[in-house]
Amino acid sequence: MSPAQEWVQVVDARNRPCGSATRAFVRRFKLWHQASYIFVHNAQGHLCVQRRTMTKDIFPGAYDLAAGGVVDAGESLHAGARRELFEELGIRRRKLTHCFDFRYTDARLHCFGGVYLTEHNGPLALQASEVVDVQWLTPQQALALDNVTPDTRVALSMLVSQGWLAAA
């Protein structure tokens, strides 16, 4: 199944589940949905920053400061975070610390995000259809990048300002 045909959990403007729709329909009509944001850091405090493939439906080729993505229909936010972390980076069986939830909206996207932290110092297995490559950067370096997915920039800024991560 292509990503555009995946079924996504749709929520109302108060983040209450109210149905499901294909990803393409959600994107076309900018429906409210849920998404996970998993910030992966290593023991040195560097973040795993991904470069998105050019085939992504929004923000192709941009830097993604977090692993994650839309929550599938009927899936919990935490289960979606675990699934996305494994799909994108090959990471499993890691403790996910839920930091906070936030609301994000722009001209292309309306979502409620759940933000998680996890530490990983081992190898990665990149999902070729979504991730071109990764680099390990300090949060400050990550925030200074151009061409970043705007929702992950907001989430990372909140993580730093709330003291979950040191900026340096």
UniProtKB/TrEMBL annotation:
The keyword Nucleus does not apply. Keywords: Hydrolase, Magnesium, Metal-binding. GO terms for molecular function: hydrolase activity, acting on acid anhydrides; metal ion binding. Mg(2+) binds at residues 84, 88. The keyword Magnesium applies. Residues 31-160 form the Nudix hydrolase domain. Its cofactor is Mg(2+). Transmembrane segments: none annotated. It holds the Pfam family NUDIX. InterPro entries: NUDIX_hydrolase-like_dom_sf (IPR015797), NUDIX_hydrolase_CS (IPR020084), NUDIX_hydrolase_dom (IPR000086), NUDIX_hydrolase_YfcD_pred (IPR024195). PANTHER family: ISOPENTENYL-DIPHOSPHATE DELTA-ISOMERASE. Belongs to the Nudix hydrolase family. This is NUDIX hydrolase. It comes from Zymobacter palmae.
